[in-house]
Backbone:
């Protein structure tokens, strides 16, 4: 039984599981609450076959709507059952937090990285504000040149490797103070292995942040 007390949604409530395997929300339904743990239907959609329990890894997220917003809690898989209705039993490993349901999950994180905005010019030094597999909100040095619609390669270091991601500026903000300017960077259809690496990093870092919130 979990030592994290959560006011789980009622039986038959529609919910979703956010797993590391893909960016999609895996729809499910609350089937039961047993000893403080949440029992939901085993995830399938958007896959063709049920997701193997081994794909749950060291933790993932369950979400549900509450009023006009959404809640999402980090959980682990404690058991699963086969049968006419396969189920997963989930134990909370952190408190739920309010979330926004959107295409890409964003992680608030500070990473220093390089932006070669113009060919032949020195790369701008930037720092992330938040990161998703769709792009970056960041701040750049105030001397950084606006590349307009030019494509460039963002050099993003994560998990002891540097990703080289085709990018463009989605918005160019005004100066905030004497040293930095807010900028939005959109990734321009990067290779699947790059988006997979970013998604895995965001997922693991967010799960770790939620775990630490218990301590």
Residues:
């Amino acid at each position: 039984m979990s030592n994290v007390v959560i006011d789980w949604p009622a039986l038959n409530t529609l919910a979703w599981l956010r797993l590391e395997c893909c960016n999609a929300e895996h729809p499910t339904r609350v089937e039961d609450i047993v000893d403080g743990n949440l029992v939901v239907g085993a995830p399938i959609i958007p896959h063709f076959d049920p997701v193997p329990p081994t794909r749950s890894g060291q933790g993932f997220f369950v979400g549900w709507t509450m009023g006009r917003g959404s809640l999402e809690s980090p959980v682990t898989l404690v058991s699963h059952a086969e049968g006419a209705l396969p189920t997963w039993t989930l134990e909370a490993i952190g408190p739920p937090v309010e979330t926004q349901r959107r295409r890409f999950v964003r992680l608030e994180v500070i990473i220093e990285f390089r932006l070669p905005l113009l060919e032949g010019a020195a790369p701008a030094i930037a720092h992330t504000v938040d990161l998703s597999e769709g792009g970056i909100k960041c701040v750049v040095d105030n001397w950084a040149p606006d590349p307009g619609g030019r494509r460039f390669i963002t050099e993003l270091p994560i998990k002891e490797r540097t990703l080289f991601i085709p990018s463009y500026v989605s918005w160019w903000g005004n100066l905030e103070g004497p040293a930095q300017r807010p900028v939005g960077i959109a990734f321009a259809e990067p290779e699947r292995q790059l988006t997979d690496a970013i998604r895995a990093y965001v997922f693991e870092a967010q799960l770790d942040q939620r775990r630490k919130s218990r301590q």
Notes: The mean pLDDT is 85. The chain has two domains: 14-99, 107-211. The helical segments are 192-212.
